[in-house]
Structure formats: C-alpha cells, structure tokens
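Appendix B. One record, verbatim.
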Amino acid sequence: MTKMAKAEMPPEATRETAQFRDAEKALVRVREIYDESTAFLRQRFEEFARGDAPGGRVRACYPFVRVAPRSFARVDTRLSYGFVSSPDRYSTTITRPDLFGPYLTEQFGQLLRNHQVPIEVGVSELPIPIHFAFPDGLHVEGDLAPERLGLLRDVFDVPDLALTDDSIVNGTFKARRGQSRPLALFTAPRIDYSLHRLKHYSATGCEHFQNFVLFTNYQFYIDEFVRLGHEMMAKGECEYEALVEPGNRITPNCRLDQGGPRGALIDRLPQMPAYHLKGPNHSGITMVNIGIGPSNAKTITDHVAVLRPHAWLMLGHCAGLRNTQKLGDYVLAHGYVREDHVLDADLPIWVPIPALAELQQALEQAVSELTGLTGYELKSVMRTGTVATIDNRNWELRDYREPVERLSMSRAIALDMESATIAANGFRFRVPYGTLLCISDKPLHGELKLPGMANVFYKRQVGQHLEIGIRAMQILRGMGPERLHSRKLRTFDEVGFQ
C-alpha cells in the first residue's frame, strides 16, 4: 500500500499552545489561528480550481481553547454557565471569531474569574472542511470543472457528518481515555454547518441574527413586524440600528444613516424567511416565519441554537379547547403535551419541559402593559395552562371521542403544531424559551377557522400580539444574560460555555 504524503498545512499549525489570563488577548490569538487557516485554504482552493496540481493533501485545522481547573471551588455559584463541574481538562474547537467575538470574550472572562486558571489557545487536530473556509457560503463544487470536482476529496477535507452531531447537547458524548471533556455544546464543524444552513433557510446572513428571537407560524405577524420596522427606521426614535429583510436588504435607522435602503428584496421567499431589528452587540430582535408544523420548528431551532441566543419565544395562533375562551384570548403556556414526535429520539417524552419564571413574568407583564389590564382582570383575556402540540393538522377529522378524551385528561387549554417543539429544543439547547399564543378558532365548540372569520380576526389581533412579544423581549433584555440563563436548563455534568 502506498503511504499517503504528509498534508500541506499553514505556518500557524506549527506554533505552540499559548496561555492567557486576559480574555481579549486569548480571543486575538484565536482570530490569528482561524484567519490564517481559512486564508490558507481559500488560496489553495483558488489554485486548485485554476488547474494547478497540489503536491499532496491540503489541510488546515480549527483553533481550540482549553481550561484545566485544579479545584472544585468557583467564585460565583449563582451563574448557570462560566464554570465546569470538576477538576479536569476541558476543551472545544472554535470557528468564526469575527461573528462570535463578544460571546467568546464573555465566556473566556467567566472561566478566568470562576476558576482562576489560564486559558490555553492552540491549533486543534480537527480539520476545517473547505466549504466552511468561505464564510459567505461559496458553493465550492460550482466553481470547479468536472475533472477537478472528482479530485476535491483527494485534496481537501469536506464536511463529515460524524463530526457534526448533537451528542454533547444530548448528553450522550463520552470522552475517551486521555481526551478532554467538552467545554462547549457544539464543535466548530457543527456550528459552521448550521451557519450555512441558516442562510439557506432564512435568506439572510447569520451575522444579522439577534440574541432575542421570535418565531411565528403566520405571515400576518411578519407583515406587521416589517411595517413596524420600517416605521421605526423612518422616525429614527428607537434603539435599533437597522431592519434587515430576506436578501440582506438593509434599511438603516435614519438617525444613524441617511443613505436609505441598501440591497434588493429577493423575488422568492425561502422556506423560513427571517427579519431582523438589529441592535448593538446583537441585542435586537429577530423574527422568523417557521410556517406550519413541528418539522420546520425543529429545523430552524437546531440551527439558530448555535448562535447562543439569550431567549426565544413562540408567537402564533392556536385552537382554544375550553368553552370559556374567546377568539383573541391569549394563552401563556406553562406546560406542554408533546405529540409532535420530531424530538423523541433526542429528548425522550418523559423529560418534563418546565416553565421558566423569567420568561413567564416578562410575557405576563407585557400582556398587562399592552392591554391595560392587571391582577384579576388580566384573566379576562389571558389564561395560563398546558398547550398540546401535535403533528396532525387535521386531528379534528379523527374519531371525535379519542382526541377529546386525551386532551381533557392532559388539562390542555390550547392546541397547536409548533410550541412544544420550540420549547423542547430550547430546553435541549439551554436557550430560555416561552410561548404566548392567540386563540384563532375553537374547533370543539363550532368556531372553525374559515377564510372570512380568519381574516377579520387577523387584522384585529395580530398587531397587539406582536407588540406584546416585542415588549417581552425588551423586558428580558433588561435582565442581562446572567439572570436570564437558567440553572434549571443545565445538566449534572455541564459544559462551561453558555
């Protein structure tokens, strides 16, 4: 058997691991490694695409960070992140420091404060797939002649699904003897994979996504979000810097930029279009139309999660299940019946999905402020209870007795197709979650969602519901990440990064 030639690697690969007690200096070193590695791959790919014959395999690897606490003690026991559970070696690979700079600086800083040991930064042994060396999502194969395409895997590393799974998130990862334990929930290739998929599904760059995310299942909410966004940008009297729409069309806040919109709207919307009210340091609000059904809800949250948002909320319509409810009433979910099934393999249905006090209080406060109702009077428009999420849109057409009996036994007050999925994936990914739905029909009581009735309802109710969601996000933002991220979402043996 012919021995494979040693891979050509960038100069950074030979540099020794360095230690840092300053978070910003550690980030600088991570950037140096990543930038040189990806620049090296891009240059070699351009040469390869032109027809130049490489001398052998071309490889560059992700930077890694590592920490090795020597004690169980830590400084602040109130935090849900920023520490590891026991003395050992913990490490993770890093990608896109340009995008994650503020996030990484905070994570490094928390570890330094809590454990009083240096952070080590070096070059890992995990190769960067050539596709992920192009942050803008270049379609690598599209730039190659047919004869070059067949040689691509012989020269460059390509995405490997064995390295992009969710074993750390799901708690199934087991470190081998001598291997570091995980410091973050996601490896660098898993993050890169999701960043590229986000652009595909949302038609906006991942750099535009904000730390507070609203999901909806109806275009009416998006239309109102865009209308409000343009109004805010035209007045210039808000904290948001710009509105970004699919196609990366940017409308800046006129107070900050008089240049007007940049870029063109796309002709055809993607599967789950995203819209962003951008704030400083990603503190604004993103809204995504996930459409109908649990599959989309899982898909988009699988990818948004790698951005480590501070909260996500489901705002949408649901079927009211109680005769005492009225069309237009709000449902604040404090529990979920999970019959969506898309997460059963990752998060067994026996795992409870708890309500998070910070999210519940923010939503209740927002409903109170926008409706003008408080205390006992608030119960006239909002009910707290269990939401059932199913994967069968036409559940009403089954034998009437069977679904009604199950829903009654669960004490459910509303039914939809997305909320439990959004909440369960928030639980799984340690992202604070919440649900505020609006009753648009009552199928058990003869009030069906028919075109004429639905249109009148949407026009009357969507505006207030969206404003409640935006206000809730503003309240959550005011808490700060230390208070917002909940310890109840962390496992016994948790990673150090948020």
